[in-house]
Amino acid sequence: MGETGTRLDITDKESVEAAIEQHQPDHLVHLAAISSVPQSFSDPELTWRTNVFGTLNLIMALQAHAPDCRMLFVSSAEVYGRSTFNGTSVKEDALLQPNNPYAASKAAADIMVRESSNRGLKATIVRPFNHTGPGQSDAFVIPAFCSQIARIEKGLQPPQIEVGQLDDERDFCDVRDIIDLYMLIIGESAHLSPGLTLNAASGVPRRIGDILETLLSKASVPITVKQDPARLRAVRVPRILGNADLARQTLGWSPVIPFEQTLQETLDYWRSV
């Protein structure tokens, strides 16, 4: 917010309100969240307080002090949960059936933003499916693979990579494609209906084990694979696949960065750090 920026705790209602009142934003991109599924299980209270009540604090501050601000709320494809179990691609009108504390908290915030849009909040909601790229934390699956490969290549850990569930399929985009969608939404926000909800997805299912095999083929040393029970989710979702036709029809958006490029550049990033 503002050219100099303001650091604050989104769960602190007074701090959020003061920041909005001070900076009077025209546009706001709301990404603040506890975004790790494992962390949502270990600390559900922090997850709900941040993802739900933090969002409520922001909505109330905008309504009170910057009612013309256009907000982009970044939700998550995790909100669909059990609606993905049949393996078909999910559209925006699918039932929200969250499957873990992170997903449930994002679904609650998603509903809150849409309901507030009926009462004057100028908001667009994006539900991104998995996205990755250089710089992403190794708390997520592809950077976790890449960081371990890089450490093994430099002799910083034994030549064995620890993994979670490999048979699950996910819909991946490059983070730079996702950012392009966010920028399109910001640029066209004046013409978008309040509460418009858009998926951000490639529409291509990719098996986690196949992604790992591709990355291992790029390694400079032989590496074995071991399943780590700590990396397995308490509730498994075998396949998540998104349908982004609405984003394509509304804004002309579709992913353009090849997945092979995403993998190579993510691995190279971890080799560099």
List keywords for this structure.
273 residues; 42% helix; Rossmann fold; alpha/beta; two-stranded parallel ribbon
What order do the helices and strands come in, and which of them pair?
Blueprint: H1 13-23, E1 27-30, H2 37-42, H3 44-65, E2 70-74, H4 101-117, E3 122-128, E4 131-132, H5 141-153, E5 160-163, E6 169-171, E7 173-174, H6 175-188, E8 197-200, E9 205-207, H7 208-217, E10 224-227, H8 245-251, H9 259-272
Parallel strand pairs: 1-2, 2-3, 3-8, 4-7, 5-10
Antiparallel strand pairs: 6-9
Helix pairs in contact: 1-3, 3-4, 5-7, 5-9
Describe what this molecule looks like in 3D:
This protein is α/β, with parallel strands linked by helices. The protein has a domain at 13-134 and 172-204 and 241-257: Rossmann fold. Helix content is 42%, strand content 14%. It has nine helices and ten strands. It has helices at 13-23, 37-42, 44-65, 101-117, 141-153, 175-188, 208-217, 245-251, 259-272; strands at 27-30, 70-74, 122-128, 131-132, 160-163, 169-171, 173-174, 197-200, 205-207, 224-227. Helix 4 links the parallel strand 2 (70-74) and strand 3. The radius of gyration is 19 Å and the shape is globular. It starts with 12 loop residues before the first helix and ends with a helix. The model has no long low-confidence stretch (mean pLDDT 94).
